[in-house]
């Protein structure tokens, strides 16, 4: 049994991280828009009502399936480090907040370019719901109220952020209205004049001037140089499907390498949720993350071709390296806090599909709002390594490696699954579990989302949700894993949304009870 029923529809379906975003996406579909229009409407609302997870000062990545061409296009809407940046100014660690740890925001251009390429309704219509929630306010959710209170010390350090998120001289409770009038004015300018208003126009000029006043390094030249990349998506064949993932600077190659490794193993010979299957997947995950740490960086600045990690012969060597006992590899890094990101999936009646993820990186990003603009900054610069030997080493004009990734699976030339999750390093682990559940074990989307999850960060420690039977946890310990028990529904493992497209044309959608997402269709 699942805690929620699977949502089924025939005309269109939206599964996003917030019910207001899902409603905005559905409204766009009902008004004649397609999956691109709905995705941008939903994503823009998320950037207003989920400031702890997304903002127009953040980034986005997306995959778009075009029903007419039957092709998948990847969008990399991430920004680079400012060109005037001095990497040595940070010493041995990044600060916890402030304008100095922001990269150039890429979300605005990414959404606008996706819409221009594939949408029907125009940017003004797509941004209208977000403008309304920014200008007139929206009821603070329980999750947002908790996030503001938890991050209150950081938010309070920035005068602009403190005024926006604590307008009554205290942090808001659930159900209180929250307005962001400066953000509404900025969104109205974007709706009227397009993304160029931010990157090469008046909004950008005000942004650059104001950010310089609070110590940031992003200037007009950085904004003007920004472009949305449309790199060729990565893909592999898996159990008769073609799975598409985000190419670098996304870490989507990790998921595809994981699946390529187990594609040569009969995972159906294991019981779902058994220690044998979990161990196989955890050790596979460790190998794929080790390859990331050894090779991954901005391909525009380092010699990194992720397709080499998916080469048949290379994958075969990695498959042979899967350990029978838990290995010591500690490649996932130390970013243990839940990722502050949100994911959405959309399909429309014509068969178009969008898989989109957006983020400010940590909770409330840099916890800094650029005065007079309402734009909350990301802290994505801290996604770089300060080790100059790393392929992901900080450098001016370079983009950091992102955990953000999305998935679309085709059966023949038609979409079969659209799914993804927030969760920082957990993303490609949870997506791995979703893919095996959906494809190998034929699960319904809501069931696959609600199954107990595991999460590995480093060494032999393996975190497992409490809903795993004690016998399974003991069996994992016998294989050398040091099992740490998470909560029953732990958000460190993500907050997935997924849509399955039946060959008869109907849609099935699911949303994760670990967070506040919602799926709906018509």
- Estimate the mean pLDDT confidence: 95
Shape: globular
Strand count: 20
Estimate nothing, just give the exact number of structural domains: 2
Q: Enumerate the strands of the largest sheet in spatial order, edge to edge or round the barrel.
A: 1-19-18-14-13-8-7
Radius of gyration: 21 Å
What is the helical fraction, as a range of percent?
Answer: 25-40%
| Beginning-to-end CA distance, first to last residue | 24 Å
The percent range for strand residues is: 15-25%
Largest sheet, in brief, is: 7 strands, antiparallel
What is the number of helices? 17
Structural category: alpha+beta
Instruction: Detail the poorly predicted runs.
Output: 330-338
Word description of this protein:
The protein is of the alpha+beta class and 522 residues long. The chain has two domains: 7-61 and 75-227 and 365-383, no CATH class; 234-337 and 405-513, Orthogonal Bundle (Serum Albumin, Chain A, Domain 1). 34% of the residues lie in helices and 19% in strands. The chain has 17 helices and 20 strands. It has helices at residues 19-30, 35-49, 107-118, 123-136, 142-150, 152-156, 159-165, 181-193, 196-199, 202-213, 220-225, 252-263, 275-295, 312-320, 427-440, 445-450, 470-478; strands at 7-9, 12-16, 59-66, 71-77, 138-139, 177-178, 234-238, 241-245, 340-348, 353-361, 369-370, 375-376, 407-411, 414-420, 454-456, 461-465, 482-486, 497-501, 507-511, 518-521. Strands 1-19-18-14-13-8-7 form a seven-stranded antiparallel sheet. The longest helix has 21 residues, at 275-295. The two termini are 24 Å apart.
């Amino acid at each position: 049994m699942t805690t929620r029923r699977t949502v089924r529809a025939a005309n269109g379906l939206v599964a996003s991280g917030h019910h207001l975003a899902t409603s905005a996406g559905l409204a766009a579909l009902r008004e004649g828009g397609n999956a691109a229009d709905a995705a941008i409407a939903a994503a823009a609302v998320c950037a207003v009502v989920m400031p702890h997870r997304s903002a127009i000062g953040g980034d986005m990545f997306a995959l778009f399936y075009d029903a007419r061409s039957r092709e998948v296009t990847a969008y990399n809407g991430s920004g680079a480090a400012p060109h005037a940046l001095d990497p040595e100014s940070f010493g041995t660690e990044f600060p916890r907040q402030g304008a100095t740890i922001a990269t150039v925001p890429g979300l605005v251009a990414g959404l606008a370019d996706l819409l221009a390429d594939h949408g029907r309704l125009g940017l003004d219509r797509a941004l209208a719901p977000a403008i309304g929630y920014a200008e007139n306010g929206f009821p603070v959710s329980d999750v947002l109220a908790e996030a503001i209170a938890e991050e209150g010390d950081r938010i309070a350090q920035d005068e602009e952020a403190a005024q926006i998120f604590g307008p009554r001289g205290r942090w808001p409770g659930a159900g209180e209205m929250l307005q962001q009038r400066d953000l509404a004015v900025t969104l109205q300018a974007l709706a009227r004049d397009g993304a160029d208003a931010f990157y090469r126009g008046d909004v950008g000029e005000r942004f650059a001037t104001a950010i310089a006043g609070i110590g940031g390094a992003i200037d007009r030249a950085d904004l003007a140089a920004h472009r949305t990349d449309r790199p060729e998506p990565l893909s592999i064949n898996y159990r008769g499907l073609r799975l598409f993932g985000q190419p670098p600077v996304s870490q989507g190659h990790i998921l595809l390498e994981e699946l390529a490794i187990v594609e040569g193993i009969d995972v159906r010979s294991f019981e779902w949720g058994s220690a044998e299957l979990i161990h196989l997947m955890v050790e596979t995950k460790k190998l794929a993350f080790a390859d990331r740490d050894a090779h991954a960086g901005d391909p525009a600045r380092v010699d990194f071709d992720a397709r080499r990690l998916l080469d048949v012969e290379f994958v075969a060597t990695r498959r042979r390296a899967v350990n029978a006992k838990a290995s010591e590899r500690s490649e996932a890094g130390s970013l243990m806090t839940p990722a502050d990101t949100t994911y959405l999936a959309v399909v429309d009646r014509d068969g178009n599909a969008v898989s989109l993820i957006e983020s400010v990186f940590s909770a409330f990003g840099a916890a800094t709002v650029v005065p007079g603009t309402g734009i909350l900054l990301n802290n994505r610069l801290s996604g770089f390594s300060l080790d100059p030997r790393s392929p992901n080493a900080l450098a001016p004009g370079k983009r950091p490696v992102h955990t953000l990734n999305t998935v679309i699976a085709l059966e023949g030339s038609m979409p079969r699954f659209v799914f993804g999750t927030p969760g920082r390093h957990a993303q490609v682990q949870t997506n791995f579990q979703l893919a095996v559940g959906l494809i190998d074990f034929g699960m319904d989307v809501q069931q696959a989302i609600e199954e107990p999850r595991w999460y590995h960060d480093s060494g032999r420690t393996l975190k497992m949700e409490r809903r795993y039977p004690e016998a399974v946890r003991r069996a994992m310990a016998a294989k050398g894993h040091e099992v740490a028990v998470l909560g029953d529904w732990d958000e460190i493992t993500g907050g997935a949304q997924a849509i399955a497209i039946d060959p008869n044309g109907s849609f099935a959608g699911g949303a994760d009870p670990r967070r506040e997402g919602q799926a709906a269709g018509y």
